[in-house]
Specification:
About 45% of the residues lie in helices and about 15% in strands. It has about 850 residues and is of the alpha+beta class. It has four domains: about 400 residues, no CATH class; about 100 residues, no CATH class; about 90 residues, Immunoglobulin-like (Sandwich), CATH 2.60.40; about 70 residues, no CATH class. The strands form eight sheets. A five-stranded antiparallel sheet has the order 13-14-19-16-17, with no helix packed on it. Helix 4 packs parallel to helix 7, helix 5 packs parallel to helix 19 and helix 13 crosses helix 16.
Length: about 850
């Protein structure tokens, strides 16, 4: 099967009698040669994934869109915000952003969406090409995961570098990476974290490099805490397996020493893990607290898939619809993993323990209590099998242990036959993958041939290069097909339809925003239609558009009553073309589509400053349950006429009629209705809570406003007060009053705001930003309809506020202690080594 070479790790030689694995002789390979396996794994993995793009004609290799779901709505905009931050062009800093949601925390968003260390590569390209750099993060991160896995495999058992490289690629191209996380750059860091933590486990078992183990834990958790938590739990399984199967008897070779050795390894692993996690506390703790204050979602309870669907997810090149587990690796890895239990060259205890561990991990995915543990005691809002990569990683590990122990061709053939039989039995499962049979039969046959040739290579050395080419080729080809198939099948789902993230229209939109920018004198709204849910970040605007898992409940409580549209249970907010809302939030410029298709034009209009002064409380005379009265309460003036509405028609074709002052502007708000709205010869779509307040146009000379809604919403109506008619002159007076009595100058820093007030200002200073947790101001903060406000003492000239994420200070303290412990251990170890050398 080829020469088995030794790596500088405490590998173990097999004993056919089933006894404990004993240490293999240590032989160092040239330092340069150690890079060959990881490099091969990287090239196979990233090359296969990019080949799938080429095969489908996906951008940048064709015209097929690449940005899927949140990749377009979150990841590309957040990376553009990172680019702005690094290049000094952001309205905000790493703690806070003024762009989106009228000012929101940014540290937790940075940690969650930008934590992948490779995300920093996106700041090296021109801003116009950030989206392409984001797409490139996927093959780079997957390739890195494969490379690190190749290194980890060498820590477990010695073997040829090219074999470790091929199996590392099997891991980097697992079903979870191709089907679930290929468009989620921060989750993909969990794919890297698992082998990183595996290496840390081996160092702890070897009782060396404790600081390095702690730093590997920190690196894993720095990238993304969600998948790092899953990888850490998997590392605990790896540690348990290795403690059971590894020889820990020390120099004396007596059992008590073995017990002590295991306890020492466990202590080193636990302290390294605690120290590594503590190093990330400045990011981890604020994110945890931000999650607690975020707008809640209505995640459904975990419902395990049927057993045949679960098993089908283990078949190569399978992509089942919806929230199904994607557990597979390439057929080469599956055949080797299956042969592991038959391989008598591996100690019996090792085989039993690894097989039991893999079965228990798979079973835990189907058992609700343990599934909640995998997800941090939370119900996943989306695919419930987000930890599937840890199963694939363990399958690749036993595949390597089998390959390094030279499996017999008979055992390989038996496993291949079982794979074909399982595929035949599961062929009728829902949406059985069209490429699964070719992968099982074609890929399996080539894999079996390659492994047989490898076995014959002991006596016929010329067969080994042939086997190597076949193994590399089958993993590359099969994974390319699997990646292309996953992309194609996923794109047929409505939520995953690819969208554009850069084109001429988006470029013109960005330039139109730049031309009317006036921050912080006023805000600019990027308008609609939106390119992404985070257009404010992507286009450098300051409107309400924001989409984040951390959008605070306080922001939802402030914006929803005023008529802003939202979705995702309130974690995504959209803009509203409404001049009253513009006045409330100091929006003094707006961008709208131009006359030519794809063109945009911006316009400026008077707006109050970001900080205004209210001398007395105000209550709208209009019906209190209407959105228009709530807007007036925040504005502090009566600007609407809210007429009585006569409703008619049918349940599906509803009619509404009202009388308003001729020449006023009619607005509509119907958050319960989904359908088509028609008025004055024009029609537009209304999408219940998503739409928000919308303009209907000028009220005709007759004063009559007629609206027809063709609705598909069962039993829903527009409510009692869907119509409001705006008096532009009254609004102009209110804006002029707020401007005259408001701040004479406003300075907005990265996470601070300071306003100079006119002489004699009394009452309450109201900031055009939501009262989210973290604001500390020059006077006690008071809630003003969800906005930040401060009482003004006589003679107050300036007011200011500073935003500090909750948990940042204790997080920094915890990280400092962890860094001190790390430095102390490092210095102490260096002194011991120096003392030993001197002796």
């Amino acid at each position: 099967m080829g020469t088995v070479t030794s790596e500088p790790a405490t590998a173990h030689s097999p004993r056919p009698d089933g006894g404990r694995d004993l240490p293999a002789p240590r032989r160092r390979r040239p330092r340069r040669a150690r890079l060959y396996g990881p490099l091969l794994a990287f090239l196979i993995t990233s090359g296969a994934f990019c080949a799938a793009w080429v095969a489908r004609g996906t951008f940048p290799f064709g015209n097929t869109g690449r940005a899927v779901n949140d990749q377009a709505n979150q990841y590309v905009p957040f990376h553009r915000a990172l680019w702005d931050l690094v290049h000094g062009q952001a309205a905000g800093d790493v703690l806070f952003t003024w762009r989106g949601g009228f000012g929101q925390q940014f540290l937790s968003d940075y940690y969650t969406y930008l934590g992948n260390p490779f995300s920093w590569l996106t700041v090296l390209v021109p801003r116009a090409h950030v989206d392409l750099a984001v797409f490139a993060l996927t093959p780079v991160t997957m390739g890195t995961a494969a490379a690190v896995m190749a290194v980890y495999l060498g820590k477990l058992r010695p073997g040829p570098w090219w074999q470790r490289g091929v199996l590392g690629a099997c891991y980097g191209l697992c079903g979870w990476a191709l089907s679930d996380a290929s468009y989620i750059p921060m989750w993909l860091w969990g794919l890297v974290a698992l082998p990183l933590l595996g290496i840390a486990v081996e160092w702890c078992l070897e009782e060396r490099r404790w600081p390095g183990a702690a730093l590997l834990v920190a690196l894993a958790w720095y990238g993304n805490f969600y998948t790092a938590m899953m990888a850490t739990m998997a590392a605990c399984v790896l540690l348990a397996v290795r403690l059971i199967t590894r020889d820990m008897t020390g120099r004396l070779g007596v059992p008590p020493d073995g017990v002590r050795g295991r306890l020492r390894a466990l202590w080193r692993a636990s302290t390294a893990a605690a120290t590594g996690v503590a190093l990330t506390l400045p990011l981890l703790l604020p994110s945890f607290l931000s999650s607690g204050s975020a707008q809640p979602t209505q995640a459904a309870a975990f419902d395990p898939v049927r057993i045949e669907l679960f098993l089908a997810g283990m078949l190569p090149a399978t992509h089942l619809w919806g929230g199904r587990p994607r557990l597979y690796v390439a057929s080469l890895g599956l055949i080797l993993a299956g042969s592991f239990v038959f391989n008598a060259a591996v100690a019996r205890r090792t085989r039993l323990v690894w097989a039991a561990a893999i079965l228990l991990v798979a079973a835990s995915f189907q058992f609700p209590p343990t599934q909640y543990v995998w997800h941090g005691l939370a119900v996943p809002n989306g695919n419930p099998y987000r930890e599937a990569f840890v199963f694939s990683g363990m399958v690749v590990v036993v595949a390597w242990l089998a390959l390094a122990a030279r499996p017999r061709p008979l055992h390989l053939a038996l496993t291949a036959g079982l794979l074909v039989a399982a595929t035949f039995v599961l062929r009728h499962t829902d949406d059985f993958g069209g490429w699964t049979w070719p992968a099982v039969l074609g890929g399996g046959a080539v894999s079996l041939l390659a492994l047989v040739l490898l076995a014959l290579g002991d006596k016929r050395r010329y067969l080994i290069p042939v086997a190597a080419v076949l193994m590399v080729g089958v993993v590359f080809a099969e994974s390319t097909v699997a990646a292309a198939s996953a992309d194609a099948r996923r794109s047929r789902e409505r939520w995953a339809k690819p969208t554009a993230t850069s084109n001429r229209s988006i470029g013109d939109h960005y330039e139109a925003v730049r031309q009317v920018d006036g921050w912080p004198a006023y805000r600019t709204d990027s308008g609609s239609p939106q390119t992404s849910y985070n257009d404010a970040l992507a286009l450098r605007a300051e409107g309400p558009q924001y989409y984040s898992s951390y959008l605070p409940e306080a922001t939802y409580g402030a914006l929803e009553p005023l008529g802003y549209g939202f979705k995702n249970d309130g974690r995504t907010f959209f803009g509203a073309d409404n001049p009253v809302l513009d006045a409330i939030f100091s929006i003094g410029a707006r961008v709208r589509p131009g006359a030519a298709p794809g063109s945009w034009t911006g316009s400026k209009f008077p707006a109050p400053p970001l900080v205004t002064v209210r001398s007395a409380a105000y209550t709208s005379p209009n019906p209190g349950g209407s959105v228009y009265a709530r807007q007036e309460n925040v504005l502090g003036a009566t600007v609407y006429q809210v007429p009585q509405v006569t409703r008619g028609g049918s349940a599906t074709e509803q009619t509404y009629a009202a009388q308003c002052t001729p020449g006023s502007e009619a607005f509509w708000y119907s958050p319960e209705v989904y359908g088509t709205l028609r008025t004055a010869g024009a029609e537009r779509q209304v999408e219940d809570q998503v739409t928000g307040v919308i303009p209907l146009g000028e009220v005709p000379a007759s004063g009559r406003v007629d609206v027809t809604v063709d609705t598909r919403t069962q039993g829903a109506t527009a409510g009692e007060h869907p119509l409001g008619c705006l008096d532009r002159a009254a609004l102009g007076t209110a804006v002029a009053r707020l401007t005259a009595g408001g701040a004479t100058a406003v300075k907005a820093g990265g996470h601070t705001i300071e306003a100079t007030l006119p002489d004699g200002a009394t009452g309450t200073a109201v900031f055009a930003m939501t009262d989210i947790p973290g604001w500390r101001c020059s006077a006690p903060v008071r809630d003003f309809h969800g906005l930040v406000s401060l009482p003004l003492a006589p003679g107050t000239k300036k007011v200011s506020c500073t935003f500090t994420p909750k948990g940042l200070t204790p997080g920094l303290a915890g990280a400092a202690l962890a860094l001190l412990a790390l430095a102390s251990v490092t210095v102490a170890g260096a002194r011991r080594r120096r003392a030993g050398a001197d002796a």
